[in-house]
Amino acid sequence: MRTTTQEAVLSAYIASIGKRTPRDAVQDAAELCRFATSLNRLNEIACNSGLTERQERRKQNLQTRIKAVLERAGLVLNHFNNDPRGYAVYLDLPDGSYNSFGGRECGYGIGR
Question: Which residues are registered as beta bridge partners of 80?
Fold first, then answer.
């Protein structure tokens, strides 16, 4: 299994919070990145041609699943981004780290 940098960073933060074991933290981080990437793809489709009803339900389902994983992992959602040029999901990490031009207020982005 290939681990991305985002997955490694997220799993370290999740494990440091202490609510999850390191193994569970890695699984949560992988799920978050996979869901956020799928959400970003739907954002691209919405921008290019619009979403069908099924795709709209899928988007809502992904957002719900992302919120559930974040709650389980002990992380806080900053916001969802509908613009396909940026990250799909922004989180507030415990130490205030960020990886976007929006700065600390925008948070740490995943899903590209």
Answer: 89
User: Rounded CA gap, 75 and 86, in Å?
Assistant: 20
Domain spans in the chain, listed from the N-terminal domain onward: 5-110
Residues 81 and 70: their CA atoms lie apart, in Å, by 16
| Cβ pair 90, 100 in contact under 8 A | yes
How far are the Cα atoms of 20, 29, 92, 95, 106 from residue 17, in angstroms, in the given order? 8, 13, 13, 11, 21
Sign of the torsion angle spanned by Cα atoms 20, 103, 67, 41 = negative
pLDDT of the residue at 2: 60
What is the model's pTM? 0.93
Q: In the predicted model, is pLDDT for residue 52 greater than 70?
A: yes
